[in-house]
Specification:
By secondary structure, the chain is of the alpha/beta class. About 40% of the residues lie in helices and about 20% in strands.
Length: about 210
């Protein structure tokens, strides 16, 4: 092997290794969402987040998911989030009617009148896995008591076994997390169900962008 050929081989090896080490740019995962016109959103200011339900066969910590969603909503500073009293029972009727395919407007109006609400947010956990690789699927909708219509809806699955979710998670971590000295960094979200849930809730609430 000549010296010139050996150098060429070495350069090619280095360039190949460099190309492999160059990662694709981090991108945010697109998710399905709907936001009504500004006129329909204007009067929806005081809301209540009802306990989250789960689809048949899905075992999930719905209370933790709901708490993460409430925290994310409060950070949005768009709503007054009214605490759910222990005596509120209309949420069961609302979720039951949703499973039947038709929202109970009677239960909705009764709840909103009792607590002077503009709307209620309903959520359903469609998929859940707490252990690595975690995933969380949610379907949420905000219903206005003034119009009886859905003014905000999001339906998405975040599965850490999927490359788009990992890219999105790393982007989220790079923009929102402080360096706490952890050896895990962004990967800590894959080890902690609470952190992964907080991340998904943040992404759902982040779809609220008014024109």
């Amino acid at each position: 092997m000549t010296r010139r050929f050996a150098i060429a081989v070495a350069l090619a090896t280095l360039l190949g290794a460099a190309a492999c080490s160059i990662e694709r740019p981090l991108t945010q995962k697109p998710i399905n969402s709907y936001l009504a016109e500004p006129f329909d959103l204007a009067n929806v200011r005081r809301i209540m987040v009802l306990p989250f339900a789960h689809e048949a066969g899905v075992q999930a910590d719905c209370e933790q998911v709901r708490d993460s969603f409430v925290t994310a909503l409060q950070k949005l500073r768009r709503f007054e989030v009214v605490p759910l009293p222990a005596s509120a029972r209309e949420n069961e009727e609302l979720h039951a009617s949703l499973h039947r395919g038709r929202l109970s407007t009677v239960a909705l109006v009764r709840l909103c009148e009792r607590y002077a609400l503009d709307g209620v947010l309903l959520g359903t956990v469609t998929a859940w896995r707490a252990y690595t690789p975690p995933h969380l699927g949610l379907r949420t909708q905000l219903v206005s008591v003034h119009s009886g219509a859905t003014v905000w809806a999001v339906d998405a699955m975040y599965d850490s076994a999927d490359r788009t979710t990992i890219s999105d998670l790393r982007l989220f971590a790079s923009r929102s997390l402080n360096d706490d000295g952890s050896l895990h960094g962004w990967e800590l979200h894959l080890l902690s169900p609470a952190k992964f849930t907080n991340y998904v809730a943040h992404r759902f609430v982040g779809t609220w962008v008014e024109g």
